[in-house]
């Protein structure tokens, strides 16, 4: 045996390079492709999300928050704060729904249909029992709550200005825009959390194209919020929240019933 033979190891004796990381990437890629293939088309998810958000948000608490704040603050700032919170909430809700797609689609599909039926029946029931002046009452409720918050903030600002003088006063004026932006975003986020449109977005993302749901929902929120900041009080006086609620219930029931005719598509 010569020297070269002594160092000529069989290839089977060489240590194998770990393939764990590529395997994980492959598994995630396959999962994404599989889920995208199973879910509906982008347009279908877009239209479903757009319609559900519009009928859920017109005359809703977030609508009135944007409308009232836009009466006292720059509209573009109020819109930017509110829509940033709503888009973030839409993405978050769709992500929750998409994660649920690891469950077999046949289960999530029919579960979503049942939930839509429950939402629809509840909205019809609420609309039937709703006072015709319900929208005006909610507008006044939100207005009084915002006024209470603003009065408290003004008192605190006055005390701070007396204590710290003109320099602090100028600094507060420079930060006024950021304050309005954050107030609109935080109030909208808190009002939207657990709301019907958020739950509907989660449910839609389990059965429709997730990106379509996000884009459609974001556009729906943008339309409603834009309408609120441009002429929210006038719109609130013209539209009937009772009628919008009943129409919304019918839309939810339509999606519930259509699900049983279309099927999960597997």
Automatic annotation (TrEMBL):
Residue ranges crossing the lipid bilayer per the database entry? 36-55, 76-100, 106-124, 176-193, 213-232, 244-263
Q: Which UniProt keywords apply?
A: Membrane, Transmembrane, Transmembrane helix
The family database entries (PROSITE patterns) matched by this protein are listed as: UPF0016
**Which coarse location class applies to the principal site listed for this UniProt protein?**
membrane
**Keyword Nucleotidyltransferase attached:** no
Q: Which GO terms describe its biological process?
A: Golgi calcium ion homeostasis; Golgi calcium ion transport
Say yes or no: keyword Transmembrane helix present. Answer: yes
A Gene Ontology cellular-component term:
Golgi apparatus
GO MF entries: calcium ion transmembrane transporter activity; manganese ion transmembrane transporter activity
Q: Pfam families attached here? A: GDT1
What is its subcellular localisation? Membrane
Region called Disordered, residue ranges: 135-159
Recorded hits in InterPro entries, A to Z, give: GDT1-like (IPR001727), GDT1-like_CS (IPR049555)
Q: How does it sit in the membrane?
A: Multi-pass membrane protein
Of which family is this protein a member? Belongs to the GDT1 family.
Name of the protein described by the UniProt record:
GDT1 family protein
User: Which species?
Assistant: Spodoptera litura
Its ancestry begins with: Eukaryota, Metazoa, Ecdysozoa, Arthropoda, Hexapoda
């Amino acid at each position: 045996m010569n020297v070269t033979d002594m160092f000529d190891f069989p290839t089977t004796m060489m240590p194998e390079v770990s393939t764990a990381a590529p395997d994980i990437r492959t598994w995630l890629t396959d999962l994404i492709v599989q889920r995208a293939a199973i879910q509906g088309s982008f347009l279908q998810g877009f239209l479903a999300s757009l319609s559900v958000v519009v009928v859920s948000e017109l005359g809703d608490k977030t609508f009135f928050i944007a409308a009232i704040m836009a009466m006292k603050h720059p509209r573009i700032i109020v819109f930017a704060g509110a829509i940033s919170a709503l888009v973030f909430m839409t993405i978050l809700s769709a992500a929750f729904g998409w994660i649920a797609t690891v469950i077999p689609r046949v289960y999530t599909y029919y579960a979503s249909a049942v939930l839509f039926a429950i939402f629809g029946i509840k909205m019809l029931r609420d609309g039937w029992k709703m006072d015709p002046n319900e929208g005006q009452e909610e507008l006044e409720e939100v207005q009084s709550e915002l006024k209470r918050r603003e009065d408290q903030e003004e008192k605190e600002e006055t005390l701070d200005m007396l204590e710290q003088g003109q320099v602090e006063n100028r600094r507060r004026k420079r930060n006024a825009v950021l304050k309005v932006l954050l107030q609109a975003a935080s109030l909208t986020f808190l009002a939207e959390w657990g709301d019907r449109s958020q739950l509907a977005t989660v449910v839609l993302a389990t059965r429709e194209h997730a990106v379509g749901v996000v884009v459609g929902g974001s556009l729906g929120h943008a339309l409603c919020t834009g309408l609120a900041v441009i002429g929210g009080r006038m719109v609130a006086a013209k539209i009937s929240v009772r009628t919008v609620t009943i129409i919304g219930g019918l839309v939810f029931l339509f999606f519930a019933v259509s699900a049983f005719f279309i099927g999960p598509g597997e």
